[in-house]
Structure formats: C-alpha cells, structure tokens
Amino acid sequence: MANVVPQAYLNNTSSVPDWLNKGDNAWQMISATLVGLQSVPGLVILYGSIVKKKWAVNSAFMALYAFAAVILCWVIWAYKMSFGEKLLPFWGKAGPALGQKFLIKQAALPETTQLHSDGSVETLMVTPFYPMASMVWFQCVFAAITLILLAGSVLGRMNIRAWMMFVPLWLTFSYTVGAFSLWGGGFLFHWGVMDYSGGYVIHLSSGIAGFTAAYWVGPRSTKDRERFPPNNVLLMLAGAGLLWMGWAGFNGGDPYTANIDSSMAVLNTNICAATSLLVWTWLDVIFFKKPSVIGAVQGMITGLVCITPGAGLVQGWAAIVMGILSGSIPWFTMMIIHKKWTLLQKIDDTLGVFHTHAVAGFLGGILTGIFAEPELCALFLPVTNSRGSVYGGSGGVQLLKQIVGGGFIIGWNIVVTSIICVLIRLVMPLRMSEEDLLIGDDAVHGEEAYALWGDGEKYDSTKHGFDGDDTIHYKSSTGATQVV
Questions:
Q1: Which residues contact 311 (CB under 8 A, 6 or more apart)?
Q2: In 3-state terms, what secondary structure has residue 109?
Q3: Torsion sign, CA atoms 466, 469, 470, 471
Q4: Which of 45, 54, 100, 396 stands 20 to 30 A from 363 (CA)?
Q5: What is the pLDDT of residue 47?
Q6: Considering the entire predicted model, what is its pTM?
Q7: CA-based max dimension of the chain
Q8: Averages of pLDDT over each 10 residues, the chain, 484 residues
Q9: Structural contact between residues 91 and 186, judged by C-beta atoms closer than 8 angstroms
Q10: Distance between CA 307 and CA 316 in Å, rounded?
Q11: If 0-12 CB within 10 Å is exposed, 13-18 middle and 19+ buried, where does residue 226 land?
C-alpha cells in the first residue's frame, strides 16, 4: 500500500518551494524574535531600571532608538556589507536587502565557500533551507542588540542627538567589518577563528567600543558618579530574565537550522549562565558579606557572554568550567582591578560594559580555543579538523587564532569608534550640558519615569504639587549597587 503524504507536508505551492524546510524556517524566525525581545523590551526595561531615577527615560529611549535605527540602516545598506559579496577581505559590498526577488529566494551567504590551498572545495557555501528574508531579519536583531549593549557605557550623560548620529555610523563602519570578517566569509572566517554566536562580533566589539566612546563622551556628573542607585531592582530583574531566556535564540539560532548542534548550544548557554551567576554571588558574599542582586545579574550576563563564542562547540563540563571562570575573572577585573587602575577609574563606563562584555567576550573566545570539541566543531565550522588545544593536533594553533581574531576586533573598534566620536564632536557636543546633567530626563525629553520626587534632586513645590522646605533630600546609600 502506497504511503499517503498529508497535504500540509507537500511542497507543491509557490509559497512553499522545494528547498524550504518549514521547521528550520520556524525556528529561525522564533530565534530572531527571541533575540529581538532581548532588546525590546528586555534591555529597554533593564536600562530604564538599573539607572538612577532621573535617567530612566533617557536610558530606555537610547535602547529603543538604536533598535529602530539599526533596522532601517540594515535593510538599506548594512546587511550586504556584513553578509553579501566581498569588497575587501574584511568588508562586504553595500547594497539594499529590500527587493522581493532577493528576499524570497533561498538564503545563501555568497562568500562562505571554504577552499583548500589547491582550490578544491573544503566546505560548501552556507545555504540554509529558508528564505533570505529570515536570514536578513535574524542577523538584523544581532546588529541592533550590539548597539544597545554599547549604549550601556555612556548612559546618564551622552547627548541624545549625538547618539542618533553615532548609531548608523558605528553600525556602518565597525559592526559590519566584524560581522563580515568572522561570519560573512571574511579573512577571519576562512582562517578558522571560532565565534559561534558573537563573543567577538557582538560582545567584545560592544565592550571595547563602549569603553572607547565613554572616554570621548566624558564622565557623568560628579553627583551621579558618587551615587547612582537603580530606581527599580524588580523591573531590572524582569529585564534580565528576558535577556537570559532570549539567549536561547541568540545561541540556538546560529547553526541556521534546528539541528542537534542547536540543542547543544541552548543547553550549554544555560549551564554556563547559571554557574557564572552562582560564582559571582558567592564571591560577593565572601568579600562583601551580602549577595548583591545587581551582582547576580552581572554574573548571569558574563556567563551568557562567555559561552557565546563556543556555545555549540564545547561539551557540558567545559560549559561549567567556562561559567566558573566567567563568574570570577570579570568579577575580579570589576571589583579589584577597576578600583586600583587609574585608567579604568578615569573612564566612566556607566554599567561596566567593558568588564561584562569585553572581558567576558574575549575570555570566552580564548576558552573556546581551548575546549572546542572536534566532533562538535565538524557540525558547524567551515575549516575541517578544527579543535581546541586540549584535544591536541591543531588545537594549539587554534588558540593563537582566537587571540589574533580578538586582537583585530579590539584594534578596529578602538580606532573606528574614536574617529566617529571625534567627527561627531565637530558637529555637536557628545556630552549633555551641565544643566541638563543636573536635571535629567525632564530636561532631555520633557518626560519623567515616575510621578515621584526625592531622588536626590532639589525639591520644587511648584512642580511636585505641595509645599515643602525647598531643601535637597538625600537617602543613605549602601550595598553593592554603588559598584555600578
């Protein structure tokens, strides 16, 4: 008796071509949505809650604006600079990703064919079984979250108009270079540098660029640097939770298919994040006698960042080791080295993005070069026989590749971010005026997050609706929140 295939599984319509895998397409769009939710509302909520009350609206809006601006820039020119045809070994040719003929054809990354030294094909071009539209949107939300992470370094003082200029410039001249070099078929991709889901492209770049931008923008007001408590710890945890759960799409979507490596990546992501959070919390208890909620969130983030370059490439036990190191090394750089190194103290990195993303991202890239398992590497990487150093063979060279790849991202972002900031400064101030810094959201946006007063600002009886003593009201500041 002949098997009858249900109508729903027959690819016999123009909207379901033979090459379309419905499961892969569904997972890719879900993954993209999860990553999008990490930004909106995830980081919008987290940024709006973790800062001082007078900066809640401005911080949340910087994230929201970046998300919207990146989408438009991405489809008009930046996608093809990151994943299109090669212009330079580190850069693709600019062009729109808007036409229907381009967007409904099978996805393909044209520069990803890996060749042997004799010119024969080592690994075929990346051609997932879904349309280009899914690929364009998936990669778009990665670009958007990178700018939003970078914003964490300059919250509480960057001129919003300068930020509006910064976003498209940095996306165009920095992000696209890292994305093409490591993912789109650039020189680091073909050399075999491992970056499974953005430890270098997203986290190292945003951490270094954010730290560099913080230098050029200048510090927050003295009062804000001395006292910057979160205005809503519970909402901060809600934003952090969206960030954590959204990482299933962040790392699970990068094999470009719903396969066994995708499952491995999601599990490793959660193992490393949980381990890192616990280690950071234990260190807070040991050295500060109290478990800090902000510290736990920082530990969660460093774990998620650290596992990202190797999520689908390492075994579960290695994810635990990476979690231990990501919960302790960035903790040490933030809590110990930061307080002793004059340069780190001079540059006002508002949310410590340098530690949570640059340090943790580079650490993850190096640890991936150590722990990447050969069989898992074969499921994902274009260079055959890739492996971490603990597995012998070419593993020692792999560790060197990871260091060089990270060095390229660091150097490019320092130079390009500096140039962008200097150019913007010729047109307008990078930093808000002292008067705006004193007032906060009401001066910048004409809006406030809460109908409350008393966050250290001067009491205004005409504004707050009843008589008062017109004095400055301060609340005592305690705990580990001041570390941020």
A1: 196, 197, 251, 254, 264, 265, 266, 268, 269
A2: strand
A3: negative
A4: 45
A5: 96
A6: 0.90
A7: 91
A8: 63 80 95 97 96 95 98 97 96 95 95 90 93 97 97 96 98 97 95 95 97 96 92 95 96 94 96 97 95 95 97 96 97 93 90 96 96 93 91 87 96 98 97 94 89 56 46 38 41
A9: yes
A10: 11
A11: exposed
- 373 in Cβ contact with 248 (< 8 Å): no
Calpha distance 13→20 (Å, rounded): 11
Phi, psi dihedrals of residue 66, rounded to the nearest 5°: -60, -40
Instruction: Pick the closest to residue 240 from 40, 449, 38 (CA basis).
Output: 38
Output the pLDDT for position 22.
Answer: 93
Cα–Cα dist 92/85, whole Å: 5
pLDDT of 474 reads 40
Number of helices (H), then strands (E), belonging to the chain: the values are 24, 4
Single-letter code of the amino acid located at 408: F
Query: Of 196, 209, 155, 204, which is closest to residue 43 (Cα–Cα)?
Result: 155
CA-wise closest residue to 444 among 23, 4, 62: 62
- Residue 340 has which token pair? 């002793």
Angle at CA of residue 334, ends 413 and 35, nearest 5°: 55
Do the Cβ atoms of 289 and 475 come closer than 8 Å?
no
Give the position of tokens 């999520």.
311
pLDDT in the model for residue 10: 66
- Kind of pairing, strands 91-92 and 114-115? unpaired
Q: What angle do CA 81, 95, 36 make, to 5 degrees?
A: 65
Cβ-based neighbour number of residue 285 at 10 Å: 13
How many CA atoms, within 13 angstroms, populate the side-chain half-sphere of residue 292? 25
pLDDT at 482: 41
Query: Chain centroid to CA 443: how far?
Result: 29
Q: Which residue from 58, 70, 227 is spatially nearest to 155, judged by alpha carbons?
A: 58
Listed residue (249, 252, 255, 258) closest to 24, CA to CA? 258
The DSSP bridge partners found for residue 115 are 121
| Residue showing tokens 């604006």 | 65
Check if the beta carbon of residue 74 is closer than 8 Å to that of residue 175.
Answer: no
What does the buried/exposed string (b/e) look like for 313-348 if buried means 16 or more CB atoms within 10 Å of the residue's CB?
Answer: bbeeebbbbbbbbbbbbbbebbbeebeeeeebeebb
- Taking 3-state DSSP, the helix, strand and coil percentages for the chain, each rounded to the nearest 5, stand at 65, 5, 30
Taking phi over 0 as left and psi of -120 to 50 as alpha, with beta for the rest, 192 belongs to left
Q: Minimal CA–CA distance to 198: which of 155, 131, 241, 149? A: 149
Q: Given this model, what pLDDT does residue 16 score?
A: 86
d(C-alpha 79, C-alpha 83), whole Å: 6
